[in-house]
Amino acid sequence: MKALSLVVFLAALLPAQTPPPQALPNLPDDTVIAVFDDGVKFTMGQYKSLYEVLRGNQPAMLQERKAFLEQYALMRKLAHMAEEEKLDQVSPGKDILDYYRLFLLSQAKLNQEVQSQNVSDEEITKYYAANKDRYREVKVKAIYLAFSKALASQASNGKRILTEEEAKAKAGKLLADIRGGAEFVKLVRENSDDATSRDKDGDFATITGTDRDKLPAAVVNVIFALKPGEVSEPVEQPNGFYLFRADQITYRPQSEVQGEIVAALQQDRFNRWMQQTHDSVKVEFPSPEFLGGSAPPPAK
């Protein structure tokens, strides 16, 4: 019979259905909360430190504190038994420990590098000024003219659906009317095929810099190029043409986006440091066979 894995076995020790506490107990760090069978004392401060690093185990550490420490005590005993038998000095134990030591230390260095990136107020202000368009917000109204790739047809509401050529021509005429002084909202009510925006006098959305990844590039680029009150040329999409009007253009204030700017600057610095570190790694591969190449001819 196969042995149960340690994870499954230890999970079975957790008691079922106890009301979860809302937070860790508010105890001084030097409070002894457990004494293991070898006499070692475990404090609240140590428990808090463990809680911070064991992200996946935090629910158990909150809800099943007694069972978690009993599990932890069992792991300690098993680890001590392994050390007494020198399992940490022979394969596969030694190899696994060496690999995970490298892995954990490399992660610690990456975390330390991220957290050490300090950003000054001057850098934040400079970044905001240089990237202000990212924080632009354009409140947009729209007229939408649907078309069918086939011949003109009837929609479910009985309205005739235009062909692509007819919709394009109509969009051009509406644009000429608007530039000639026609009221945009009146034309929305009379012509737009988008019922949702039509019922709101053409209100389409407030487009921000973060929408560049959510909307078609053709739509975002046209909207961001508009001046207040300006109406776009017809913008073709798969099933219709849009006329966009920029009703209002504002910018999110620097105070509101400061956290985003700090994160962007920190990420940029980290990426450059990571690239430099990566580029500094040099590895030689003296065995072509290892890389799948052909073996060198035997020496004569």
Comma- or semicolon-separated keywords:
300 residues; two-stranded antiparallel sheet; disordered N terminus; six-stranded mixed sheet; alpha+beta; Chitinase A, domain 3
In short:
The chain is α+β, with helices and mostly antiparallel strands and 300 residues long. The chain folds into 2 domains: 6-103, no CATH class; 131-251, Chitinase A, domain 3. It contains 11 helices and 8 strands.
Structural class category: alpha+beta
* Radius of gyration of CA atoms, rounded to a whole number: 33 Å
Count of helical regions: 11
Helical fraction: 40-55%
Question: How would you sum up this structure, described in words?
Answer:
The protein is of the alpha+beta class and 300 residues long. It folds into two domains: 98 residues, no CATH class; 121 residues, Chitinase A, domain 3 (Roll). It has eleven helices and eight strands. The strands form two sheets. Strands 3, 4, 5, 6, 7 and 8 form a six-stranded mixed β-sheet that branches. The protein has a two-stranded antiparallel ribbon with strand order 1-2. Strand 7 and strand 8 form a beta hairpin. Helix 6 crosses helix 11. The longest helix has 27 residues. The N terminus is likely disordered.
Write the layout of secondary structure elements.
Elements: H1 6-11, E1 32-35, E2 41-43, H2 44-53, H3 58-63, H4 65-84, H5 93-115, H6 121-130, E3 136-148, E4 153-154, E5 160-163, H7 164-179, H8 184-191, H9 195-198, E6 203-208, H10 217-225, E7 235-237, E8 240-251, H11 254-280
Parallel strand pairs: 3-5
Antiparallel strand pairs: 1-2, 3-6, 3-8, 4-5, 7-8
Helix pairs in contact: 6-11
